[in-house]
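Database export, one record per block. Field names are fixed; values are copied verbatim from the stored entry.
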Amino acid sequence: MYQRVARSALHASLALVLLLTAGCASRKTTAPGEESAGTHKVRAEAYLFDARMHRDGKMNTFRLEVFQTDSVLGLGGRGYLGKGVLKGRMTRDSLEAYFPTASEWVHASISELLESTACPITVPDLNLISLFTTLPDSADWPAKILIESDYEDSNHPKFTVHMTDCPWKIEIEYDRQDAGWRIREFYFTDGESNDLRAERREYKAGVSVGSDKFAVLIPPDARRIIP
């Protein structure tokens, strides 16, 4: 039972990695149970998504917050009754994510997560945070990754990201904001029993948020998942 739950949490983490990997140097992680040393204000682009995740046949709906700077992403998920379902931070080097409902957490390098899949992906030194601001067919992807572009609606271009002979895929739709192209909705499936769909409810180009939006505090009794 535990292995199945851990695998589901890893699939959720992989979805976030494939969609939201940020670019900056690695950081020192906050130790389990350790509180942050205060907050300060950070300028960021802010997204609020209505999200639905299927994990092993069960559906969970929640609001997904994404706060983006030029070097890091802060992630927060909260159920409609106010219960937290996700807290995360991504850099180019690593993902740290805590899943309160499962009392599990992941802290691993991006390469470890991607290479733990049935279709391993070796990620070169790329800043994939550009998925939030640059259309996928303009990015420099590894040769194994295929991009299908759909410009039938020029105001809402759509893209499918996948690999030959691999079951997972990502679908992303954009729209034009004052700052440029921004993600409007996305869908990830591992091709098995897990998927994540999110539709943007709100976007703000520049907001002042507390630095705690980019911090992850892990309870001392949480179980760590190792890829």
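Remark 1: The radius of gyration is 17 Å.
Remark 2: The longest strand covers residues 195-210.
End of record.
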